[in-house]
Amino acid sequence: MLNMLFGIGLLAGAAVLVAVYRPKERESWETWGICILLGLFSMMLSDGGLFLQVIEHAAQVVAFFSCLCAMHREKVRRVRRKALREKRLASMPAPKKEAESFCA
Known about the structure:
Layout: H1 2-21, H2 26-44, H3 50-91
């Protein structure tokens, strides 16, 4: 029963991470995939010994926080790149207008 609850919690947490962070990089998608697989395996496997459950749940927690860190790092990089791009565009000199002729 505990494996089923942890599996559902991990799947729900992974879904929330994808909805909030919207990853685009491969590393983020790979860690997210690991979270999903661990959640599915947890739901499929039956309860075992206490020691094995502790190891499994610890691995799920580590995978979830790894996924969170990868997605957050990607989002921070995207925000910094966007700010740097806007800063570069703002610091570029404006194109000079050529003087219009008075006579046609």
